[in-house]
Protein 1
Amino acid sequence: MNLIIRIAEREDMKSVLLLINELAEFERETDVVNLTYDDLIRDGFSDPPLFVCFVAVLNNQIVGMSLSYSRYSTWKGKTMHLEDLIVTEKERGTGIGNALFSNFIKYSHSKGVKRIEWAVLNWNINAIKFYESKGAVVYDDWHIAQMNETAIKNFISNK
Amino acid sequence: MNLIIRIAEREDMKSVLLLINELAEFERETDVVNLTYDDLIRDGFSDPPLFVCFVAVLNNQIVGMSLSYSRYSTWKGKTMHLEDLIVTEKERGTGIGNALFSNFIKYSHSKGVKRIEWAVLNWNINAIKFYESKGAVVYDDWHIAQMNETAIKNFISNK
């Protein structure tokens, strides 16, 4: 298998956006991806960039990606967050996800962070088992709270 | 009540660290705060800073703080994450948390983000009710996965 994991370049963002849309469908969500190709170029290649993206290239085709950025823990200091790890459906189960995950951990370790973190859907048992097999702990006592654009605007206009 | 919410300065970090330790106790965790005063100075006042901190000052005393940073959603683009919102125990219930939260939302709105996000412990019913009253949605179908320093090192050395 001729697989290369490398840092993404501007011209890879079209393939990256296709993978993002594919994952949204897998997560049973549609019409949620507002992000455009131009957004990815602007945000991923600014100074400083808002994220770091790696792509998995199999026989010259992009078949997977990881997208991450740093966060901050008031207990541990600088941490890394894995926002997405995506392998296109027909290439799953071939070790590409493993290679992308391993690359992400090594990259984070090279940045000296003391914690790596990400979110996983509670019904995605395969993913949870995969992560636990890698030494991750999956916590079910934390909930994620979000305000979307409408909620933010409502809050502001009610003040 | 002579309450001022303002952006934190270097010399506020001692009070901020005291608040961080107070929250760790409230969350039933001890010996988890590895962060030092020097870490907070280095990370919060670097270029770019790793977080933005606001303090609540009541009669010239720091009684609360919010600490946040930007994240990135592959659906929405740049988002804001509220890592901590802390009010010292004896000043709770007096509107200071509300003022810090409101300040954080306005700050995030000024940055043009389309989503604001944070984590809440599932047994912290008062916090969940407070957030929902502000228009937030609390999701229970996402779990948080983490690898700590030991898990990262084990992973690296097994490769």
Protein 2
Amino acid sequence: MTEMPPEPRYDVIAIGNAIVDVMAPCRDELIEELGLNRGGMTLVDAARAEELYAAMGPAREISGGSAANTLAGMAMLGAECAFIGQVADDQLGAVFQHDIRAVGIDYDTPARAGDPPTARCLIFVTPDGERTMNTFLGASQFLPPAALDDAVIASAGILYLEGYLWDPEEPRRAMRRAIEVAREAGRKVAFTASESFVIDRHGADFRALMNEGQIDILFVNEHELASLTGENDFETGVARVSAKVPVLVATRSARGAIAIAHGERAEVAAEPVARVVDTTGAGDLFAAGFLTGYARGEGLERCLRMGAICAAEIIGHYGARPEADLAALVEEKLG
Amino acid sequence: MTEMPPEPRYDVIAIGNAIVDVMAPCRDELIEELGLNRGGMTLVDAARAEELYAAMGPAREISGGSAANTLAGMAMLGAECAFIGQVADDQLGAVFQHDIRAVGIDYDTPARAGDPPTARCLIFVTPDGERTMNTFLGASQFLPPAALDDAVIASAGILYLEGYLWDPEEPRRAMRRAIEVAREAGRKVAFTASESFVIDRHGADFRALMNEGQIDILFVNEHELASLTGENDFETGVARVSAKVPVLVATRSARGAIAIAHGERAEVAAEPVARVVDTTGAGDLFAAGFLTGYARGEGLERCLRMGAICAAEIIGHYGARPEADLAALVEEKLG
């Protein structure tokens, strides 16, 4: 592409899992009793989901899904957003649809009839605020390439892809096609690695995409960075990946985050939080803040600060959808 | 009855609406724009529920229902509880079932097949923490008398009835029968008036029940007391009703509550709250604290204090199901 692409209609379009989170606090001991992967995300089948739900305390349902959470944050920060993801034609699907549209995100993927039901993520939150996620993917894994409207994808400045969704086959094909469409249209492709296990299973794909220059912006945490590079040393891993992707954002939980963009490096400390209630969505909202700043052409450090502010908001309460007015928070802290 | 009834298996059995709350913060102006009854509970049909949901911001789903909320509080305080209420055989019904059983309440009412779906209450929470409720009763209003097991009702020390459920015909018949069964077994009948509109429509029934000595414990707020007696003066209303019911508990929001039991009077101030986030369930949890104390044979003032502590917990966060350990809270404050 040598021509400039036309002014984007959306700042970002994301493809991700369409999930409702089912969250409850739990004793530390329960994580062991149930044999859960503390702090991680585990895919579960319907029977295991039933078993875990039965063992869970009284819960609340809040829409989730990694990329959808990121978009909700971006929309609250004023970005124009569209989402693609598969729900079933059931009550939880209606909840997901409502919540994502209610923040002003365009979301038109038709609900899928019949089984399986809408995806849910059973989230056990221990007293330290750590979330342990168990995802029943349900309808979410049947997102067909046909659900993608090329013209809409081409009309977004950034295509944002969720690594979790790389695992099931149908959505992976859909995402590969979306990458082609976006690149053809001269748009940026952003990717969040999501979880080490995804990289363990599909690292070759991700490395190939990076080597081919298909990824413009990559979000990883330090564990994912290590999985991706096979390097336990953080800085070595950063150097390795930043040679391949124009913009790398690496988060380190309480130790803040760094970004390297076209050779420039910036770092930010974690934003102080009065009490860590529930870490669900911290990475998703970090990406929301960063990407909104990036889409607006803000400086790298400000993008990181926006990410840190959004992440701090989300871990101060239950659920991975923002409760506070993120735009006002950013304005208050950064002016 | 002159014989002593056998030791109860349950401290309380409640009959109430089986509802999932759908809650979202909202601007003050939206209440007027949508023509809502600010601070009240309004019954809505399916079409109006759709319309209001579409106008609502991103929401969260938390099990609710007045009597069910009260039981959840009582169970957390250590009471043995059973619940009767009608859900549909759908995802929100499964959510309600899960949440009530997860606090240790026995709940065996079979889910109802087909339409209508499980009840939901669309709750708009204004910045002052006031909740404006719009209830689509769905399956809840089809609780059949056949769902009542006489032996189970007779095995509970207290039968607790929710005024809201007096409105639809089938549950009203079920509740009338439950009162007969409980009285025949020498048990107490407790009743919460729920809302002025219920009294406006069914005040004659309630007054008849009181006059016949069918109600042992009555929970009202000051508005309901005024509707019930036609007396705007609080003390006059209290005197009028307490002549008819052995135990009267009258709550006055921020002005605390009073109880008159067998001629003895006690008062309590409202418990301080750092920030009123959402008043949904304040009355329900007041009843939970009071009734748990009463079932244990605590003194009247302590029962009121337990009510005030539980009410303060619930209004400090979203949702009408307790988040803190209520038993620990009561222990901490009252020893």
Protein 3
Amino acid sequence: MKYCFGVDVGGTSIKMGLFTMDGEILDKWEIVTRRENQGENILPDIAASLKAKTREREIDLDEIKGVGIGVPAPVTGAGIVKNTANLGWGYKEVSKELHEMTGLAVQAGNDANLAALGEMWLGAAKGWDNIVMVTLGTGVGGGAIVDGRPLVGANGAGTEVGHVCVNYHETRKCGCGKTGCLEQYASATGIARLARVRLAEDDTPSVLRGQEISAKTVFDALKQGDEVAEEIVEQFGAYLGHGLANLAIIVDPAVIVIGGGVSKAGDIMIPYIKKYFLNKAFFANKETEFMIAKLDNDAGICGAAKLIIDN
Amino acid sequence: MKYCFGVDVGGTSIKMGLFTMDGEILDKWEIVTRRENQGENILPDIAASLKAKTREREIDLDEIKGVGIGVPAPVTGAGIVKNTANLGWGYKEVSKELHEMTGLAVQAGNDANLAALGEMWLGAAKGWDNIVMVTLGTGVGGGAIVDGRPLVGANGAGTEVGHVCVNYHETRKCGCGKTGCLEQYASATGIARLARVRLAEDDTPSVLRGQEISAKTVFDALKQGDEVAEEIVEQFGAYLGHGLANLAIIVDPAVIVIGGGVSKAGDIMIPYIKKYFLNKAFFANKETEFMIAKLDNDAGICGAAKLIIDN
């Protein structure tokens, strides 16, 4: 076997990559996610695009180990999705259907788990085999790799770290219906809310005043030495550090990778997270290393490819 | 291969069992844990006892798949212990040393992880392969089984659930040096403390007044319909249910098994735990089943035997 495909299905686009077995990305491309009619075109579109690519590159089917595919939903070990928030799918046997359409072996997984697998294979956590990745975007997602393999769980819902409770006194509801979820404080929208609340508390001067408030403007202000921005980032660091400490006590990772749009602020955020992590970490987890993700939007296709390679 | 041994090393005694490969316990016995001189006799004593048993039963070494051994400390995937609180050992290559002493294949693991594996193999969670076991004794321990295998982690410290933070406002310290650990509320000593604090609050009549307070007397009072005891168990259930919800969000188990001395109170405790679990559980984990452990003190030797069988 010389090649494999990695596919990362998102709500607006589907990213795809052609990989060698040792992790070289030979080609990558995107197609639109057609969510209409319960997303009935998504898998056929992927199959057609993969077929077109094999023809274009003159690759024989028997040179291809298979297709790994990441989906934004819980995916069971058997490649079954029970429901999706963003694709229109209800119950769908993803691995089986895509296999029937392509003739290729297919392994499906949760997109956040596969992003973690990608960062372990080719990214920030290269060389480790027990890692956690937390993705700070509009929401907070996460994936854990235990002994080199994604922690899938009984329902395919392993490592939904955004919904770990980090504040038992919160009264506002998270999108999931619970209160005090990590996502309410460590997502891009959560950070912006922390900022608005802090700015409304008093009149302390800040470069943030009069600006549109976002996670990016908060971290930009921090880099300029803004004290109010630092207070906001301290709060973010406390919630995220505490949540990750509870996660580390369970999964015992060597490395925690921080990814997603918020992580583009870079290494400057790590001390704020680590300080509170160490405060609540179990002694055996104190050496856990923190890193910013490296693969950006490619993490998902890389992890998907690794999933089929390891199978 | 017809047989294997399961060994469970505790601070006062070492439990041992001879198993068939399909899980019949042919024999079980105990020896004393000699902790003096940094526990230097522990592994030789085990090796001698296993040898004596094979002679007594006229079993050939080549009929034995090997020895699984559980240790009350973090144990890495390679069978290495870095330190122990109760055995006197510092750094010790458990699997390697016991192999050299016995000539048998050896697999070592953390005792709480192996108790979980035992309950999955022969106990309450028989038939599942994604489970969590939480052990409520003097402290709170735990083990997770992911896809049939113990979650070991980078440092062998996976699933130290007793030290998950469930109360960010606690000021009293746990034995581990942190504050707000689950162990401070859900262990036998934690429950007794919750009881003493509640009884001191006012003069509400209770059968607990004038008794020696323990987890057992609290649950006995609950069974008699004592209202103060019920309030205490509500508090216990809230902390444990919240901690297990955070754990389930990470590990996504089909079943949570409650073991240890406190669990002898039986099924009466489950509704109190489950109520708070459901309050903080992610939607994908709402179907998680709760069960009381079945194997009692045999869980450790059963899991140890299963570890070597699966290797």
Protein 4
Amino acid sequence: MKLPDGLLENIRAKTPLLHFITNYVTVNDCANITLACGGSPIMADEASEVAQITSLCSALVLNIGTVNERTLSSMLRAGRHANTLGIPVVLDPAGAGASDFRNNAVKLLLKEVNFTIVRGNISEIKYLSHGVASTLGVDASAEDRITEDNLKDALRFAQNFSVATGSVIIISGPIDIITDSGSGYVLRNGHPMMSTVTGTGCMSGAVAGCFLGAGSARPLDAAVSATAAMGVCGELACEKLQRVGGGPATFRNLLIDSMSMLTDSVLRDRARLQQVF
Amino acid sequence: MKLPDGLLENIRAKTPLLHFITNYVTVNDCANITLACGGSPIMADEASEVAQITSLCSALVLNIGTVNERTLSSMLRAGRHANTLGIPVVLDPAGAGASDFRNNAVKLLLKEVNFTIVRGNISEIKYLSHGVASTLGVDASAEDRITEDNLKDALRFAQNFSVATGSVIIISGPIDIITDSGSGYVLRNGHPMMSTVTGTGCMSGAVAGCFLGAGSARPLDAAVSATAAMGVCGELACEKLQRVGGGPATFRNLLIDSMSMLTDSVLRDRARLQQVF
Amino acid sequence: MKLPDGLLENIRAKTPLLHFITNYVTVNDCANITLACGGSPIMADEASEVAQITSLCSALVLNIGTVNERTLSSMLRAGRHANTLGIPVVLDPAGAGASDFRNNAVKLLLKEVNFTIVRGNISEIKYLSHGVASTLGVDASAEDRITEDNLKDALRFAQNFSVATGSVIIISGPIDIITDSGSGYVLRNGHPMMSTVTGTGCMSGAVAGCFLGAGSARPLDAAVSATAAMGVCGELACEKLQRVGGGPATFRNLLIDSMSMLTDSVLRDRARLQQVF
């Protein structure tokens, strides 16, 4: 199955401005992958300015990786304002399940804000859906891992969560799942090296924001394309890494480099996308 | 026209300590370019310690990229204390024009603190001067872009803003403008790759802090030298990038690497500096 | 003298989860070196969640590099909770001596929390011990520098501070000192390039957290192994840098890369460790 064509080129033509309220661990990576993808990032988390910043932007990305009371309140304001203006919003529930504070934060965010896309690992999304935590920090727990055996169950689960929230759901992992209420996709791109650096998940959310912000993709297409773009860049970076040598820090640079050089045709040729329903 | 000689060497001989209150997006880049340039960075934003930290330092760099109520108050304290002690202060009005909060923040900073150097893109500086925003996030808007055609107007505008503030003004862009009330310079260094990564503007402010902090340059010379140093390093990094291959993440590394290897003689040979008045 | 064997392999087998409350300058480097070493990092500083996050983890790392009133309170909560649960805690007193706020912060932390390991440069540790500051920002001051001449005094001083605190003490520098109340070690690994980038000290603390968190090393062995691992990786990165060319930014990447490829046998072969008492 082929991805829709021309979406990356469209991002680069439009340079969508993205507002991030995100964690301070991977924020620089999120800014740089946004630029590499063709968007323009602005980070702003002061409660008294976030609504106004959001209103300048084509998409809002909320990531709770290092959320606190102050920035949660800013996320709620920005998210509600984005909803009012019809600006798409991405949620990355980083570490959901790991603490009551974080759990209440995502509960509140999901209650108060309509998210266009929710992107997390399987443990985080399971927590959001069932309220039962198997999260181990910010990584998916082994017991939750999606395999060929439990893939259909995971898709069904993601679809149900999409129905409940009205959001397109991306579950990132060795096998990625992307679904809305009506269609479900499986994507088999990416490389294990991607989990050796921090921030590849956060960067996926940023890239999803770019595809949404450029405005001509349906949310499901934006989610599939963004997930494929990250996976393909992971593969390209790894192929280059095998030629030049190096470890995770070099890989991270090559990943961002690859995004800046990715074209729609390479993306479509390499995406291993399967529509399941 | 030649840059003053020996200023880089002087920074490396003195290792000036720089106090930063800056955004969490590019803070690591600011720290590393400061080290590469020969300075020593300390980041501290707790209101109850900033005056004391500033008093240890040879320059203070304030960057409002992710400013909030708390850190704005710290910036004001640190800035006023620097003024009292005669320590030079750099302002980077990142994103000025983008929100009322940010606009009030820069208004307050400009009212309460005398800045030695103000460095921003054309849209930010225009906002500071006229109070009219054409800022699109943290990048200059296309309509504002300085070209050979409007260069003289831009210089006059920057000079007027310098007269009004008493600060040396750096307007960064494809063509850089540096001016105080009496002299105006145009610098034609740098490379478009510099806008493909986040932080090159912020790093320019850091480098300006290094030249100021080392103590033997007049503010105008510090501003011109710092702007030239960033531009020349952008060119050197790009030349290396063309040999080794890669994209923006590799470029960012090469930019910082280049600063660490830059010498006064290379800087003076490559700076394309023109005095206009 | 040889390091204990198998400790790195043990980290990679157990993937210890580490809770960081750390500065926003080098936080990304700390996360990536933790992953490269075999651990899994989670950064969380909201006071209402830190105890719960700590309780999920195998070690807690507190770094006061950009501490403020809010995060100090979170550090105290997390530290006390770690003590209650018997979870090892690392303190990095970044910039101790530079301001009253920072000095009171470390005083409070040392009073309220039992640290398994305290890691700092000589000026910071001297401040903690004597309450007299010669700190210049976040770097050791020249007058404090440990040389072959004052090495015995420095060891004795570190031992006394270890007796007073009950913590293993790591003094990082050109010559590293590691001591508890009964034994003292000198380590002669590392490279001057390590001080040309920000974060190598912070990363040492992160690596110490990995060795502690994996659970099978005595605190003194964890401290010695972590310090040796950072020093050896600094050397390996520098050797590679000499082959491929580049400056500090490239070096930083090679340092993290080296940690991901480091094995126990290389670590033991290259560690230049001497037991002094």
